[in-house]
Amino acid sequence: MNAAVELAPVVALVGNPNCGKTALFNALTGSRQKVANYPGVTVEKKVGRLTTPGGRSIEIVDLPGTYSLRARSPDEEITRDAVLGKLATERAPDLIICVADASNLRLALRLALELKQVGRPVMMSLNMMDIARKRGIEIDLETLERELGVPVVSSVAVRRGGTDTLLAALDARLAANEAAGPSAWRPPDAAGLRGGQREADRVLRAAIRQAGHLDPRTAKADAVLLHPVGGLVILLAILFVMFQAVFAWARPLMDAISEGFSWLGALVGQAPLPDLVRSFLKDGLIAGVGSVIVFLPQIVILFFFILLLEDLGYMARAAFLMDRIMGGAGLHGRAFIPLLSSFACAIPGIMATRVIDDRRDRLTTILVAPLMTCSARIPVYTLIISAFIPDREVWGFVGLQGLVMFGLYAAGIAGALTVSFLAKRLFWRTTAGEPFMLELPDYKLPQAKSLAFGVWSRALAFLKRAGTTILSMMILIWALASFPQPPEGATGPSIDYSLAAKIGRAIEPVTAPLGFNWQINVALIPGMAAREVAVGALGTIYAVDAGEEAAGKIGKILAEQWPLATALALLAWYVFAPQCASTLAVIRRETGGWSWVGVTFVYMLALAYAAALATNQIARAFGAG
Amino acid sequence: MTINPTIALGDARVGFRGRIAALDLARAPAAGLPPAELERRLIELGFVEGATVELLHQGLFGGDPIAVRVAATTIALRRREAMAVMVTDQP
Q: Which residue from B minimizes the CA distance to A195?
């Protein structure tokens, strides 16, 4: 063990939500940060390292945002316990930095007063000083420091050199080597909070000249974006553009990736290797992984939109607009953000339900989050839509393929609303729920760097998954589809003799009413690990089945071999099916037991079966069989 | 000296400007929280006696939820919880 590393002082960042704490954390640590979980809970733990100008090595912890140490959610409990030094696995902070948005100081000052009571060294960092100055807010740092009784420095997280003052102050504070005093903090009651806010208001009046006017740009934007009717129309339009973009913009890149892998497959196909090795590399590895990686552009575009809306400050507005509509379905307005994240992936979505304080509201949201169309379904949808739905325009300007995609998303949303409505009636039988109370932050121009950082880390996570879980599943599928080998002199396609065909045929009686053939059955099984694997699996199965030239043309083969009714039924299946082991694992972690996993799995499976059955039978009745 | 009537913020219309006169938890029986907890949450978001308020926006259905400027912060909440915030239109 390195003693210097061991003794690096711990500095904790604490602040209100939206105060720019994470931007400051990114500015201070850059890429020297790690995201992990606190043991036993799923609260994200963000730790980074930095070396101060004075040569001091520091460990910085970015704690979840809060308005008070009086914790009400698992996230806020972590913040409280970390600040109080009560986390068994973490070292207590040597210095607490209360981060505040300089243009929105009032609530932060009350929090700072609470932090002062903890007895540990505290300082305040006024972030976004540039924005405050532009808006004519003049802050007298000396007065603020004196009245608050805590050292105050200013910072501009998004500008180069914007953290120099803060770093110098850090050096000075840590050099003083102050010991923590006894903590006088107790969970405040209403009188205590009221007194704190009065004191904060007094400090504010002494140190700041500002009228408390609304940011004029935010006021102008909200007049449109929060308009009762117009706001909802714009929200729907944003969602529609998002999904059209995911479908249309990604196309050229996806084609390029797909061609790249075909080329690679063809290259390996000509290599002087034993048949089995060549088949493994070409049909198992390259075809399998290639058919998943091809969806990277879509995932990048989707996360780009979600992170952009979040950084802009629009997400809270979306929750505001949707609160009443979601409330009608028994969901909390705050559930909108987790559910919207679930469009990217249910896992971050389910983890984001931690912003919902009430346990019942939270469980309802977790229950329906997997119904939101996640990015892992995109590969399946894209494959089938582009194979079966003609690429033409309806009403002169909307692509039919994009419209079907939108319809699938809408079906997932309708399913989620219905299930949550029923859950609220069946499980809880309550009407009054957790109140909707949320700060609407000023709009801010997103920083290209932090946006890129966010998209990059998501893309990396997807590639990592493609490289581990998905890759190992692809190898398993290839093995199932390749063994046992056909006997000498066999005439039929070799896959007919394989274990995969046996499994697929065994469950055929169950899936026949849905119109699924055994190849689909085989693909559904590994699809349990991750939905997008099904596409790779179909690729592998049909590549092994049809031989050489099939690898790059799965869609074409499907269009030739499946009736339209089967394709539509598979789409309906995928809207509802609980086909993701990682999601179920996260539900277990977040709910602390298997019972909710069971409920989720069973209800989704039942819905999927019913939807696919209905779709297949109706489509056949209309002659699409 | 004139006495300004106080109304509940939950009953106010868009465009209302005034000051918080008191928090009266008995006025919000339909709120989703016990009174003591609702009071603490309201204070944590800045709803303290004397603070200026302005009702900026409201939702489409039943005028709910509402967006309220409290001093220098904008807070979204539902009318049934805002019933506990007593306001006067005195500047």
A: B48
A66 contacts in B (CB within 8 Å)?
Answer: none
Which of A190, A320, A442 is facing B65, going by the closest CB pair? A320
DSSP B66: E
Tokens of A3: 């003693």
Contacts of A599 (CB under 8 A, 6+ apart): A367
> Dmax of chain B from CA atoms?
39
Taking the CA of residue B89 and the nearest CA in chain A, the distance in Å comes to 18
Task: Give me the residue from A218, A316, A437 closest to B45, CB to CB.
Answer: A437
Distance from C-alpha of A333 to C-alpha of B65, rounded to nearest angstrom = 10
pLDDT > 80? residue A592: no
- Confidence tier at A96 by pLDDT (50, 70, 90): very high
Q: Which residue has the tokens 């420095």?
A: A153
Closest CA to A105 of A147, A57, A59: A147
A84 or A496, which is more confident? A84
Q: If you search the block for the tokens 């063994």, which residue do you land on?
A: A483
Strand order in the sheet with B85-88: A437-439, B73-77, B66-70, B52-58, B17-23, B85-88, B6-8
Per-residue model confidence (pLDDT) at position A5: 46
* CB contact at 8 A, B12 and B73: no
Predicted pLDDT of residue A291: 65
Minimum-distance CB partner of A440 among B46, B67, B80: B67
Give residue-wise pLDDT tens across range A509-519.
998 999 998 88
Chain B positions touching chain A (beta carbons under 8 Å): 30-33, 36, 38-46, 48-52, 56-62, 64-65, 67, 69, 71-78, 80-81
Is the per-residue pLDDT at A604 higher than 80?
Answer: yes
What integer best gives the mean pLDDT of chain A?
82
Residue type, A561: Q
pLDDT band at residue A43 under the 50/70/90 scheme? low
A395: alpha, beta or left, given left = phi > 0 and alpha = psi -120 to 50?
A: left
